[in-house]
UniProtKB/TrEMBL annotation:
SUPFAM superfamilies registered for this protein in UniProt: alpha/beta-Hydrolases (SSF53474)
Family the entry assigns: Belongs to the AB hydrolase superfamily. AB hydrolase 4 family.
All residue ranges annotated as the Serine aminopeptidase S33 domain in the record: 60-198
Superkingdom classification of source: Bacteria
Residues the record marks as active site: 141 (charge relay system), 268 (charge relay system), 297 (charge relay system)
InterPro entries reported in the protein's UniProt record: AB_hydrolase_4_sf, AB_hydrolase_fold, ABHD4, Hydrolase_4
Name of the protein described by the UniProt record: Serine aminopeptidase S33 domain-containing protein
A GO MF label: short-chain carboxylesterase activity
Organism of provenance: Reichenbachiella agariperforans
Gene3D superfamilies in UniProt: alpha/beta hydrolase
Record field: transmembrane: none
Length: 328
């Protein structure tokens, strides 16, 4: 499939040709109001729960949306995507990863880039309890990584209902993405993520004091150390190196059978060169890589619009396959 290096995306304002500004501006200033979510809580096979937020029109087409690290279904990019597809006549389901819906989860484990069983639970629940004939997947940052890893792990066994996926600002290679967060220029993002994650580990300690040691946790300043002490042991990895080397979504791209669009801006401050899988996508029958020269990390604003270019691009890509499916 093609690599689209000359993307049609033109960035928000001419003076925003800066990956950090394009990332931070919408995160701080963009507000999406009045979305009529209907919440559903479902149980997981291991005794935990997931909170799903629905916007329904009565359509037989569904979009399932996955958020990024320490995000949730109230984030501006999620609500914007939900609203856009809803206005186009789709039912939309935005789901919260464990512990991200405003209530800490029950089990010791949390979530991470490489875990796909909760997305599997959401998809299977939807298929078994609803009447949808066609399903599209949209993911942002970590949610994009989870989406691609799920598709690759399942390969030819992906449910026939899933016709296409569109993902944005994807840390395709965890080693490379974690390394980017060590740079001084990314101190803001590193501190912000770690503050939230450390607070969540403290909540886990309150639930499981014998299983989670939080001594010196407030001195952690790097993702490498956080993943070594907490992400890895809480989720069955030997250490951070084992976590990074086995959880990257790019390990599974060769097995993806569902048409999938990966959009990673060239000025994304959180992605290194290994997060742009040019060769893999050129040799794939199902993957398309699009690399706009600007857009930042989950930015992609459009001047004078109440939606983002990500919303527009995801709809254009997925709806085409929805229409092709309906002709079969």
């Amino acid at each position: 499939m093609p690599v689209i290096s000359r993307s049609p995306y033109g960035n928000f304002f001419s003076w925003f040709r800066n990956g950090h500004l394009e990332t931070i501006y919408p995160s701080v200033f963009r507000k999406i109001k009045g979305l009529p979510y209907e919440r559903e809580r479902i149980d997981t096979p291991d005794g935990d729960f997931l909170d799903l937020d629905w916007v329904q029109t009565g359509s037989n087409k569904l979009i399932i949306v996955s958020h990024g690290l320490e995000g949730n279904t109230t984030r501006h990019y999620i609500k914007s995507c939900v609203r856009y597809f809803h206005q186009k006549g789709y039912d939309v389901l935005a789901w919260n990863y464990r512990s991200c819906s405003g209530e800490i989860n029950r089990t010791l484990r949390l979530y991470h880039h490489g875990v796909t069983d909760d997305l599997e639970t959401v998809i299977q629940h939807t298929i078994s309890t609803r009447r949808y004939k066609r399903i599209g997947l949209v993911g942002y940052s970590m949610g994009g990584s989870t989406t691609l890893k799920y598709l690759g792990e399942n390969g030819v066994n992906v449910p026939k209902h899933i016709v296409a996926a569109a993902v944005f600002s994807v840390p395709c290679n965890l080693w490379d993405s974690a390394h980017q967060l060590t740079f001084r220029k990314n101190t803001f993002y590193r501190k912000r993520f770690l503050k939230k994650l450390i607070q969540k580990v403290k909540q886990k300690h309150a639930q499981f004091p014998d299983a989670v040691n939080i001594s010196a946790i407030d001195r952690i300043k790097s993702f490498g150390l956080f993943d070594e002490r907490y992400t890895a042991p809480l989720h069955g990895f030997r250490n951070a190196r084992h976590f990074y080397s086995t959880s990257s979504s790019d390990l599974h791209y060769h097995s993806i059978t569902v048409p999938s669009l990966i959009v990673n801006a060239l000025n994304d401050p959180l992605l290194g060169e290994k997060c742009y899988p040019y060769e893999t996508c050129q040799n794939s029958k199902t993957l398309t890589l699009e690399t706009p020269r600007c857009g930042g990390h989950v930015g992609f604003g459009l001047r004078g619009k109440n939606y983002s270019w990500m919303d527009q691009r995801a709809f254009e890509y997925i709806d085409r396959y929805m229409q092709e499916w309906s002709l079969h």
